[in-house]
Structure to design on (538 residues):
């Protein structure tokens, strides 16, 4: 089964940290990546740039409309994701719980759904 | 098991050894989560090494040692950033070194430790069931959730909390001391029987049987009997095998309930009946006869009757008399009353059932009213029977059983109330 870890962070929690502390977080996250690769759970992961670099796109009536910023304005924003392969939801929870960012942010664990083409 | 599962040899090793390896790793690493990770890593190492090095002489010992080594290595790396983990790592390392020697007896003991820990009284019965199915049986969270008609996140959190509880309560990973064994074993047998019954008869909804859970319950009970030949463990295994032997006969092709008396006995699985019979004999031979063994003995009397009318009801009443003393309950009294109704006369059965209904505890139990109705039908008092069947229907939740009661009501010329 594949599971997505969606990482939500509150940037204000990082504000009081020193640069050294922030760098350490980055390195611990890269270690975590390596650990998941070594254990065979890793599929893909990326960090995301800040939400002020986001554009939200809609083409509801066939014409392209864009707005500045993320889809939802929230205190905690989506700041990265992992896609992992795990035996079951509890193994996925265990893996997510070891993520260094889980100590400061929230990690949503979501099973990946498989869509199948339906004859039309 | 992820990438490694693609290899047939590794897959087979997982099937045969994974639960035993996990049981030992929990002892060595003193933590369920850490042990699960180590188990995963051990099979990853096997998938890496075995294709070139060949399968080791003792896959179990190889996997335990690989898992332990990798867990300690991982802990050391994590400990670089965490002083608390560093101390824990040192302790685990020392202990794991001290206990690394694997004796055959220890393998069996580890499996028992795992079963007793998953069924430890600090956990609620629901948590015991969930943890046993995931840890002892190796079912996935999603499979367990599906079997219990639960949402996976709710079941997953139940398991997370159960493990945390074991950790915070410092539940020792051990087979209980002789003096505690009967009570603790009783809890294990309860969990197994709960799982079996969940698979054998769903409380509500359309599906009368859910095969997977019953199979798992029988598997754990077999394991338990092989590790700890206790009379009641044998009795429980026998009871489940005897129920299981009738599975194909207890529902019609259309999914309707078929009563014991009406079942096609040719569909009963003789090999399960024989195995159940042997176990009942072994349990009786210990002279420590408990409720499970007695219920199994009753099921065996039914199983040994070639035709329904050959059933030795006198023997069944006698067994219920002993069971009532060993484990008094209103439901046992009801079953005994039905047996008396068969062994003597429906009037005798009816008198006993009415006394039980007046007593109150069974007033809302649909089977009590259905049993009363049966006695009345046999006595030709159909109008009264109709009333009791209608009362039973009003109290019954389960789809197939409801349809059965509706048919009985229709046969008596009544209208099934919705």
């Amino acid at each position: 089964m594949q599971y997505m870890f969606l990482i939500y962070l509150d940037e204000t929690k990082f504000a009081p940290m020193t640069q050294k502390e922030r760098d350490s977080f980055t390195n611990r996250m890269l270690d975590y990546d390596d650990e998941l690769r070594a254990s065979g759970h890793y599929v893909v992961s990326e960090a995301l740039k800040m939400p002020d670099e986001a554009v939200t796109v809609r083409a509801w009536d066939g014409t392209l409309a864009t707005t500045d910023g993320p889809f939802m304005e929230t205190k905690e924003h989506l700041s990265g994701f992992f896609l992992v392969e795990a035996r079951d939801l509890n193994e996925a929870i265990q893996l997510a719980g070891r993520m260094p960012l889980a100590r400061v942010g929230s990690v949503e664990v979501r099973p990946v759904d498989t869509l199948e083409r339906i004859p039309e | 098991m992820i990438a490694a599962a693609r290899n047939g040899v590794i897959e087979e090793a997982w099937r045969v050894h994974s639960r035993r390896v996990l049981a030992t790793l929990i002892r060595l690493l003193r933590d369920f989560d850490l042990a699960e990770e180590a188990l995963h890593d051990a099979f990853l190492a096997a998938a890496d090494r075995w294709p070139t090095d060949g399968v080791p002489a003792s896959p179990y010992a190889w996997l335990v040692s690989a898992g332990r080594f990798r867990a300690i290595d991982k802990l050391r790396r994590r400990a670089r950033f965490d002083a608390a983990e560093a101390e824990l790592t040192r302790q685990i390392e020392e202990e794991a070194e001290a206990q690394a020697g694997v004796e055959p007896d220890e393998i069996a003991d580890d499996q028992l430790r795992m079963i007793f820990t998953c069924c430890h009284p600090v956990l609620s019965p629901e948590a015991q069931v969930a943890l046993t199915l995931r840890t002892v049986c190796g079912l996935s969270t999603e499979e367990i959730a599906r079997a219990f008609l639960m949402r996976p996140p709710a079941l997953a959190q139940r398991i997370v909390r159960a493990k945390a509880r074991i950790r915070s309560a410092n539940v020792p990973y051990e087979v209980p001391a002789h003096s505690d064994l009967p009570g603790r074993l009783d809890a294990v047998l309860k969990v197994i029987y709960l799982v079996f019954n969940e698979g054998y008869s769903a409380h509500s909804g359309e599906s009368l049987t859910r095969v997977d859970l019953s199979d798992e319950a029988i598997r754990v009970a077999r394991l338990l009997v092989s590790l700890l030949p206790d009379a009641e463990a044998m009795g429980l295994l026998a009871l489940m095998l005897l129920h299981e032997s009738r599975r194909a006969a207890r529902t019609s092709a259309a999914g309707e309930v078929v009563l014991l008396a009406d079942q096609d006995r040719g569909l009963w699985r003789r090999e399960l009946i024989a195995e159940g019979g042997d176990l009942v004999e072994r349990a009786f031979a210990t002279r420590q006869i408990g409720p499970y063994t007695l219920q199994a003995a009753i099921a065996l009397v039914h199983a040994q009757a070639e035709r329904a009318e050959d059933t030795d009801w006198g023997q069944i009443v006698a067994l219920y008399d002993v069971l009532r003393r060993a484990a008094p309950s209103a439901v046992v009294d009801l079953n005994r009353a039905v047996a008396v109704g068969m062994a003597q006369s429906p009037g005798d059965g009816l008198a006993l059932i009415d006394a039980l209904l007046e007593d109150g505890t069974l007033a809302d139990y649909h089977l009590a009213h259905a049993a009363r109705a049966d006695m009345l039908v046999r006595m030709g008092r159909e109008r009264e029977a109709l009333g009791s069947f209608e009362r039973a229907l009003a109290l019954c939740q389960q789809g197939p059983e409801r349809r059965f009661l509706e048919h009985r009501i229709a046969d008596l010329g009544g209208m099934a109330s919705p």
